[in-house]
Design brief:
The structure is a homodimer. By secondary structure, chain A is of the alpha/beta class. Chain A has two domains: 168 residues, Rossmann fold; 105 residues, Orthogonal Bundle (6-phosphogluconate dehydrogenase C-terminal fold). Chain A has 13 helices and eight strands. In chain A, strands 3-2-1-4-5-6-7-8 form an eight-stranded mixed β-sheet, sandwiched between helices. In chain A, strand 5, helix 5 and strand 6 form a beta-alpha-beta unit. In chain A, helix 7 packs across helix 11. At the A-B interface, helix 7, helix 8, helix 9, helix 10 and helix 11 of A face helix 7, helix 8, helix 9, helix 10 and helix 11 of B.
Chain lengths: 279, 279
Amino acid sequence: MIITVVGIGLIGGSMAITLKENGFAKTIIGVDTNSENIDKAFRRRLIDETASLYDAIDKSDLIILSTPVDVIVDLLPKILDRVDQQIVMDVGSTKVGLLNAVADHKKRENFIATHPMAGTEYSGPEAAIPGLFDGKCSVICAKEESSQKAVKYAEELYTSMNMKLVYLNAKEHDVHSAYVSHISHISSFALALTVLEKEQDENRIFELASGGFGSTVRLAKSSPDMWVPIFRQNRDNVLDVLDEHINTLSKFRSLLIKKDFESFYKLIQKSNDISRILK
Amino acid sequence: MIITVVGIGLIGGSMAITLKENGFAKTIIGVDTNSENIDKAFRRRLIDETASLYDAIDKSDLIILSTPVDVIVDLLPKILDRVDQQIVMDVGSTKVGLLNAVADHKKRENFIATHPMAGTEYSGPEAAIPGLFDGKCSVICAKEESSQKAVKYAEELYTSMNMKLVYLNAKEHDVHSAYVSHISHISSFALALTVLEKEQDENRIFELASGGFGSTVRLAKSSPDMWVPIFRQNRDNVLDVLDEHINTLSKFRSLLIKKDFESFYKLIQKSNDISRILK
């Protein structure tokens, strides 16, 4: 199969490595508006060739969109205008806005919306790694709106990458993503800022910060180029979860103020429940 | 050297393994009010023998206090009442209250306050692991209030464990700890609660939660038995940092409400600065 990857960053690049390595792709064509990314992708051997977007579409069986989500929303209708038999798949972190943008497109069936739930705090082709998706989950959204061929391509592709499949509608996907991914990022960004703003003596942070701090702020290294479009697309859900999170923190705060350490204990105990579901 | 470890949990147990393995301790005597912990410690080969607290003190060169911090505050004066030449060292996460509790003790010099900055979200003797402290920092507090012998013991002990030494006064220690450790825990507890409370369908969390979520809530598995005493001791500093953190989250919130994604971008960019100091 000839696959075009549009946007050769962490996700697109890692998929390119994996799909070439496991033989699912015979050829990977890389498309990126940033020529430096294409250079890096060739040097990292992520792609076999490059082309303009339309030439790449014409030569491919499958087009994977792995740009920031606002670019996906903008590009997808144009790509669908161009396709004939080809299947188009996105791997973005938000879905409702995207599916609305192509709801009435005559080639809607050629498109399948997916979201492999994997990533790191790094970005760009230099961040691409093999094994990123191994054993993780990938969401397939609104399956019934895509052709059988499109669904089959997506299912076979993720299965070849050793991913488990989860089927959700777009709305469910965006709500769940706000809870299990987007809020974690805002929490990390805020924690990093809190510490950076108060701590003037940076060496001290560096010296004293142990594993716990490192893991809670790790995501604060994430790129705003990727994340601002996600927060823009999923604003309402993220606001809901963020309100809830601020309320929960305020509960801890008011128990500290009241020195009600018995209730504080119970609240921690309740949060420990997370270990039942996250090993 | 004969060393007594009072409180054989994650930290005490891991120190016991390390100090026996590197030859710093000839014998490790384990003391714990929980007899189940002593059993587990024997089975895990963390300790060589056990004794009552006073017998253990009498036989030892060094006594390490690694119980929850409220127990340390309670025990330390009693242990100092009993010691002759022995050195007593605590490894607790808060210092101001503790140092006040023994400020006028006639054996104050025999005590040295320390805090090895390492840990995991697990607790108890079964959580003890070798290598926990390797390459990390240990704080030595208010060094000038301890005898030269006490300082030497602490310095040699942590150096033998391949730890770097940082010297702080008690107040600095407690403020810094609030920033680089205690707030991370509250943030994780709150994040876990937020997600647990809203998400009824637990399988979904389990399936979709990828590495990012896992790392930000990892600390929510931490034991309230250890952490509530820390928040009690360091309440004022933790409240300051928590207020700051809630304010920062509220900044993100109000930018989302206003759809001011340009400022949102700048805030994320600023938080990315954390990568300069945390590799």
